[in-house]
Amino acid sequence: MEDVLDLYAEDYKQQFPVVCFDETSKQLIKELRPPLSATSGKAERFDYEYTRNGVANLFMFCEPKAGWRHIEVTERHTKQDFAKQMRYTSISFKTNAEFFEPKPMQLHKATFTTEFSFALFGV
User: Fold this and answer.
1) Domain count, the chain
2) I need a labelling partner for 91 at 20 to 30 A (CA). Which of 68, 69, 75, 104 fits?
3) Domain-embedded: residue 40
4) pLDDT tens digits for 48-87?
5) Per the domain annotation, does 41 fall within a domain?
6) Cα–Cα distance for residue pair 116/17, rounded to 1 Å
7) What are the b/e assignments for 26-43, b being 16+ CB within 10 Å?
8) pTM (two decimals)
9) Residue 16 is part of which domain span?
């Protein structure tokens, strides 16, 4: 953990970016009844009933010190989807409307699982 904190404390180097990566799934829901509007002294209220509309997977990359982020939404979370995102960030990424050439970077992933390593070899 200290290594990650040291990495974040380093000065920004455009030629050697620090890119953070995370992924999550979100349940998609549809409200069955319209929310009740806020009134004087009461916040907007939502009914607890809903219809489930599947799940979406989110891949997020950011380079905090450059003010850049990229979010990709996919219908599923497979090794191929993961490898595609790793390829995207390793080839080039967009920041401030400029494309940078491929270059060395430090990639930080919040949690590493066994699938992380093997996903890149199976595709």
Assistant:
1) 1
2) 75
3) no
4) 899 999 999 998 888 888 888 888 998 888 888 888 888 7
5) no
6) 21
7) eeeeeeeeeeeeeeeeee
8) 0.64
9) 2-34+46-121
